Amino acid sequence: MLSFRSKDGTALDEILHPPGYRPRGLHFVLVFTELLARIHPLMLLPAWVALAAIACWPWGDLRVMAAATSATFILLDAITLALLPRLGRSFGPVTPSLLALTLARACLTFGAGLAWGDRPALAAVGLAQVIISSVSIYGTWIEPFRVDVTHQDLRSPKLSSDTPLRLLHISDLHVERITAREQQVLNLVEQLGPDLTILTGDYLNLSSVRDPRSHAEVRELLAGICQRSSGPVYAITGSPPVDLAGVVPEIFDGLPIMWLMDEVERVEVKGHTVWVAGLYCTRELSRDAPRLTQLLADVPPEAFTLLLYHSPDLMPEAVSLGVDLYLCGHTHGGQIRLPFLGALITSSEFGKQYEMGRYEENGTTLYVSRGLGMEGLGAPRARFLSPPEVIVWRLMRADA
């Protein structure tokens, strides 16, 4: 068992492996990065110097210039990462991200020196280093705070009114502190005025699951969402390591949020009748799939069924059970995406099959939200080609 502890003294194995939860590969990666996060960047000064020296070694007479270029960009990375928490933008550790950027820069400089080692090549390396800095700054300072509003329409003969029902879907808040992103979300909820608001889990960041201040701030955010929503608010819990069983009830206590814990609610809004089914997510499909079947057993076949489950992994079961609309999050759209390739990691049993966005299968519509927040512990507080989003649905009768 792991013996390392988080900032608040909680053992990391307690955070990542709550009772009954099977550990997954991504969580071991997060543990490794969290161990790096405990090391202050200045303690690794010899490592930064060594990497810069190794990178410039193949450049011969241009070594000093190559070393100066490498050192400049390492310092720039350190400053931009260190300013994020100081300016209240995000709250991740500096060392893991700085090490990843430094290794990437060192490999680029070393490889170009081996292959060419002349002045034009050094100029090209300098340009490439500027591009890396631009991507890093964009991914940490800009994209995580650019909340998209995605509009979706769904028509169904099971809906009974000609008046569209406006449903707002919010997922994966992952709050450490209330930042400009969370304030933007509150403004959007007020502007959109949804008839029904849906929250699909992961309210805290992995770094803040035991942090009382984070609990208070996510509660403040949820209260603000309720105040600004024109209609009822329904919620489910997310991944077991994030939404701890002993924490989420205290956060929700007293808020006007209908928390569905393996429950189905018959909701009437704007002349429509929607059966909202909320399933607790254990991330163990052998346990969750039978519970979904049992949960929907009493829902009339002619009813419009809205399934809330944190991850997209129950899509085959949802299709077989005739679910009309299935809303989830969990994947973050990959959070870090590459052009043409898309998500590098989704944490889904289906890999990239349901990585983000809308999917249609045999009458069931699935939407996988990119969510709002970011992974915690030592993972970078960054998004690239996967900006945060909220989704506004217009649910209408098929012949409207």
Overview of this protein structure:
This protein is of the alpha/beta class. 38% of the residues lie in helices and 18% in strands. Strand 7, helix 10 and strand 8 form a beta-alpha-beta unit. Helix 3 runs parallel beside helix 5.
Gist?
This protein has about 400 residues and is α/β, with parallel strands linked by helices. The chain is about 40% helix and about 20% strand.
State the order of secondary-structure elements, H for helix, E for strand: HHHHHHEEHEHEHEEEHEHEEEEEE
**Helix count from the secondary structure assignment:** 11
State the separation between the terminal residues, measured CA to CA.
58 Å
Q: Return the structural class.
A: alpha/beta
Q: Count of DSSP E strands?
A: 14
Uncertain segments of ≥5 residues (pLDDT<50)? 1-15
Radius of gyration: 23 Å
Q: Approximately how much beta-strand content do the residues carry?
A: 15-25%
**Portion of residues within helices:** 25-40%
**Biggest β-sheet: count, sense, barrel?**
6 strands, mixed
- Give the overall form: elongated
Mean pLDDT score: 92
Strand order, sheet with most strands: 1-14-2-3-4-5
List the helices and strands and how they pair.
Layout: H1 12-16, H2 25-37, H3 45-56, H4 63-86, H5 95-115, H6 119-142, E1 148-156, E2 165-170, H7 180-192, E3 196-200, H8 212-228, E4 233-236, H9 248-252, E5 257-259, E6 263-269, E7 272-278, H10 285-295, E8 304-308, H11 315-320, E9 325-328, E10 337-338, E11 342-343, E12 357-361, E13 364-368, E14 389-397
Parallel strand pairs: 1-14, 2-3, 3-4, 4-5, 7-8, 8-9, 9-13
Antiparallel strand pairs: 2-14, 6-7, 10-11, 12-13
Helix pairs in contact: 3-4, 3-5, 4-5, 4-6, 5-6, 7-8
